[in-house]
Every structure is written in structure tokens, then in C-alpha cells.
Amino acid sequence: GLVHFEIFSGFGRVRLLKTLRPSDDFHGLCEDRWYSEPQTPRWLVWIVSQIACGALEQDRPVWESKVFGKKPLLVKGDGPFRAHRKWWLQFYSEAQLEGH
């Protein structure tokens, strides 16, 4: 996956490109690349990066316990999850789908 954040301030602009990819059947790799305009103070980039890293750490328990649910509970208004899940199946290994 690819995530793009762009933060604007009176001091300048800071951008984050975050990539998420599987490293093997049950592990993933998350990498961040930070970019800023030359006039953006380094302290601002550092503060923004620390806040983003803290948010990722807060989400760690969710990512570490993530499993593929064969029959998730969906309710009206959840969106086109069936089509989305069908597309995502191509990225799961047999072991992941079996839950081993």
C-alpha cells in the first residue's frame, strides 16, 4: 500500500510517503520517507515525524493481530466490501487464508 500525507503550515510544507508491503506470509514492512521544502525548519519536520511515529505505534496491536476473516460481519452502509475483498484476495498466500 501507499499512503501520502501532506501537511501545510506557515513555516512550510511537509510530506510523508508511507509504504506498506508484506515481507513474508505473516509479516509486513512499513517504511516512511519524509520530504520538506528547503525553508521548512528541521525542528518542524522532526516534530511532525515523531507525532506520525507515535500514531503508528498506537496502531501496532491492530496490525499485529490482523487476520483475514472469511465471513466478516457487514452491515448496511458499510460500502462495497465484497468487491474490495475479492480484489485483495490476490495478495494473500494460501497459508494466510488458512490461518496458519
Task: Provide a compact summary of the structure.
This protein has 100 residues and is of the alpha+beta class. Helix content is 36%, strand content 31%. Strand 1 and strand 2 (12-24) form a beta hairpin.
Order of helices and strands: EEEHHH
Rounded to the nearest angstrom, the radius of gyration is 18 Å
Shape: elongated
Q: End-to-end span in angstroms?
A: 23 Å
What is the tally of beta strands?
3
Largest sheet data: 3 strands, antiparallel
Q: Helical content, roughly? A: 25-40%
Spans of at least 5 consecutive residues with low confidence: none
The average pLDDT is: 85
Main-sheet strand order equals 1-2-3
Which structural class best describes the helix and strand composition?
alpha+beta
Strand % is 25-35%
Number of helices: 3
